[in-house]
Amino acid sequence: MNEKRSEKNYGAKALLPLLVFLGLYVGCGIVFTVLKTKNPFTIMSRYVAILIAILVAIICFDRKKTISEKIDLYCENAGQPGVMQLGLMVLMAGGFASVCTAIGGEKSIVNLGISLIPSYFLVPGIFAICAIISTCIGTSMGTMATMIPVTVALAKGAGLNPGMAGAAVITGAYFGDNLSMIAATTICAVRGAGADMKEKFQTNFLIALPATIITIVAYGVFSMGSGSTAVKAGSYNILTIIPYISTLVFALLGLNVILVLAIGIGSAGIIGITIGTTTFFGWAKALSSGMESMFWLAVFAMMISGLAGLVRYYGGIEWLVKVATNKIKGRKSCEYIIGLLSLVLSATIVNNVMAIIIAAPVAKELGDKYKVASKKMATLLDIGACVAVMIVPHGAGAMMVQVALGCTYLEVIKYQFYPLFLILSTAITIQLGLMGVKKKEENLDIDSGNKEIS
């Protein structure tokens, strides 16, 4: 299917449908941002924008093919096994997060984390707890929505710097979004790069670990002298945290993600019913609600995959790779391009999941050409996309923190140490050539001609 090519190679013109989508969605978002409209990127629906782009791709190219044939080609690409698996994974991930919240798991893990923070370690503790929570529940938005009110109380009660406390929440939440094996960003990056989930986690963790340690130390130094008030945490039930722990452990053991999520969903239901925090029908309703919250992503993934398939068929991806190849000197340059592509798209559309889905086809072509390991491709896609939404002023985290803590964007950004250290750690990893070469057993050895020019 992916080897099909139009008789006429349209080259750069084949990218027009993608440009139509980005122009409509991003262009309208920017215009309404300038006009200070509330929720500017929701005025032009992403579905309408991509539907128009799909129609352009079907109608305006390759007149020798019938409309029906081009629709069939679109459907073949939209319905690829990898895309269908991605859809099932994100639906189950949404359901898992929802059922854990319904049985009291999210509240318990937050209160447990808060109870463990020493009074003299508040800001580093906020960062660490947000990182742990987000890694367990797989959503940065859920973490920020839960932890920002807690942080407001801590900032007022302990006299913390609100900008620093807010920065700790945002960066900690996106740490987990980047690493969690049940996060939509991770699932999309792994499927898009054709990587193994466990290997991606290990690679990503080794890159993020130095940045995390330095960030905690930096927050400790800069917050020294504040936080003398004891932290009061609510009650928690350790049993309701078991589903989070089980998914993390089983995923690290290398079990299939769908099976891991199924175990997590089932165990959450059993625990909730047993301890009386939910009923069978309450569990089922929560599962349904969580799945519904992820419908947009499953549908969008299919639509963008079908559109990318048409663009590839017309020669657009091939042209883009050829142009990029002229600028790339070797594997290291390719890795920088992959991370930068994801970062720029994420900063532009302010959605790290969408950015990864759009960037993945190009990243895969480039990565395969320059023998970049799929685990590193997925890691670079994920890191680039998450770094962008940490630092942009119009990101959800930045806006939530500014409203809740009453601070300005500049007061928050100057304490966002983690994205800076993560970028430095990633750059060092690339420069030293660590974890970047495809394995021989993948039948993708490094070609001597693709060695980096030093």
Description of the molecule:
This protein has helices at 16-34, 46-59, 67-78, 81-102, 105-115, 122-137, 140-158, 162-179, 184-193, 197-222, 242-252, 257-275, 280-293, 295-313, 316-327, 331-349, 352-369, 374-391, 396-405, 409-413, 417-431. It is an all-alpha fold. It has one domain. Helix 4 (81-102) packs antiparallel against helix 9 (184-193). The longest helix has 26 residues, at 197-222.
Write the layout of secondary structure elements.
Blueprint: H1 16-34, H2 46-59, H3 67-78, H4 81-102, H5 105-115, H6 122-137, H7 140-158, H8 162-179, H9 184-193, H10 197-222, H11 242-252, H12 257-275, H13 280-293, H14 295-313, H15 316-327, H16 331-349, H17 352-369, H18 374-391, H19 396-405, H20 409-413, H21 417-431
Helix pairs in contact: 1-2, 2-14, 3-14, 4-9, 4-12, 4-13, 4-14, 5-6, 6-7, 6-8, 6-10, 7-8, 7-19, 8-10, 8-18, 8-19, 9-17, 9-18, 10-18, 10-21, 11-12, 12-13, 14-17, 15-17, 16-17, 16-18, 17-18, 18-21
Task: Please name the defining characteristics of this protein.
globular, disordered C terminus, mainly alpha, 454 residues, 72% helix, 21 helices
Order of H and E elements: HHHHHHHHHHHHHHHHHHHHH
Low-confidence spans: 441-454
| Strand fraction | under 5%
Calculate Rg over CA atoms. Answer: 22 Å
Short characterization:
The chain crosses the membrane at residues 12-35, 41-61, 82-105, 117-137, 205-222, 234-253, 260-283, 295-315, 336-360, 380-405, 417-437. The chain is mainly α and 454 residues long. Helices cover 72% and strands 0% of the residues.
